[in-house]
Write a structure and sequence with these properties.
Elements: E1 4-7, H1 12-25, E2 30-34, H2 41-44, E3 47-49, H3 55-64, E4 69-72, H4 78-83, H5 85-106, E5 109-111, E6 114-115, H6 139-158, E7 162-163, E8 165-167, E9 169-171, H7 184-195, E10 197-200, E11 208-212, H8 213-225, E12 237-238, E13 242-244, H9 246-254, E14 261-264, H10 268-275, H11 284-290, H12 298-312
Parallel strand pairs: 1-2, 1-4, 2-3, 4-5, 5-7, 6-8, 8-12, 9-11, 10-14
Antiparallel strand pairs: 11-13
Helix pairs in contact: 1-8, 3-5, 5-6, 7-9, 7-12
């Protein structure tokens, strides 16, 4: 990779992915794009506005930057997708199709993340295998399964070097949550530092896979850099670091903020989504095929999150 375009660069993953890629490949090598312009484009670095549902715009941006790789992160997430399913399909599937088509014509590699939302109520929940039944019951999950299949098709049919991971819930101190079911695991830290209390929209024992954002970014870049000959799956690798519940997060936070309290006001829609997802995923394929290994567990992540959030106040 020498010239990279990132779609969805203003999002939770995109903003940190751009920074990490620029640190690795150089500021001008990485073009950030998003339908929303950053607050200060001059400080953000090279940026172009881009609607990924416009195939001509996607092609023009990739060609003008002479890109050889696209990190395609633009998407509408789970909870927001349920309130606007038609838009979620248009953005998530239309955008990916446009990127893969440009990659086919221009010879680009493509990274596109899937999600634990690609699983569903009939998937084995603990542990969830790499290769298993996928029957999600959200439009976001449906687009992720279809996206996994489409990416594999473009690799097998056209030779596009399409790779990806299934992200679990992602936790970050830099970017606020963006409409996902796992947002509670980010919000709880922000509210703990700011107010010492949090009202959670999921039940106390709802267990989900999570990962600290630095691990997610590092792992994604490592996958794109590995020799493709070592990859059997190539696309949609299970990837995780820890399993948490709202109660276990609260307990970890109390190690640093003893007075922290948590209450519950369960949102039936998001609770139903969370209940349809795995409790623990098996990421041994990622570990075996490209050496995936997280650096942060719950205790280390909590200490780092609280330290950074306190420093920003």
């Amino acid at each position: 990779m020498n010239r990279i375009v990132v779609t969805g660069a203003a999002g939770q993953v995109g903003s940190e992915m751009v920074e990490a890629l620029r640190d690795r490949y150089g500021r001008d090598a990485v073009l950030a794009t998003d339908i929303r312009e950053p607050g200060d484009p001059g400080e953000f670095g090279p940026f172009r506005p881009l609607d990924v549902t416009n195939p001509h715009a996607v092609a023009e941006v990739v060609r003008s930057h002479a890109a050889d790789c696209v990190y395609h992160l633009a998407a509408i997430l789970s909870a927001r997708g349920e309130s606007a399913p038609q838009q979620a399909w248009a953005v998530n599937m239309g955008g990916l199709y446009n990127v893969l088509e440009v990659a086919r014509r221009e010879g680009c590699s493509v990274f596109t993340p899937s999600s634990i939302a690609a699983f569903g109520p009939s998937t084995p929940a603990d542990p969830t295998p790499q290769d298993t039944i996928q029957r999600p019951n959200t439009v976001y999950g449906v687009t992720k399964v279809a996206g996994e299949l489409l990416s594999d098709y473009y690799h097998e049919r056209f030779g596009v070097d399409a790779r990806g991971v299934r992200y679990p819930g992602l936790i970050s101190y830099l970017t606020p949550p963006g409409g996902g079911t796992t947002d509670f695991a980010v919000e709880i830290y922000y509210e703990a530092v700011a107010h010492g209390r949090y009202t959670c929209f999921l039940g106390p024992e709802t267990q989900l896979d999570m990962m600290y954002m630095p691990d997610a970014i590092r792992g994604s870049i490592e996958l794109m850099e590995v020799d493709p000959e070592s990859l059997h799956h190539r696309n949609a690798f299970n990837m995780t670091a820890m399993q948490v519940t709202p109660e276990s997060l609260a307990a970890a936070i109390r190690e640093h903020i003893p007075e922290f309290t948590i209450e519950y006001d369960v949102d039936p829609v998001r609770q139903a989504i969370a209940d349809s997802w795995p409790r623990r995923i098996d990421d041994s394929a990622a570990r075996d095929e490209w050496g995936w290994k997280p650096e942060y567990d719950l205790a280390a992540m909590t200490a780092d999150m609280i330290a950074h959030l306190r420093a920003r106040r």
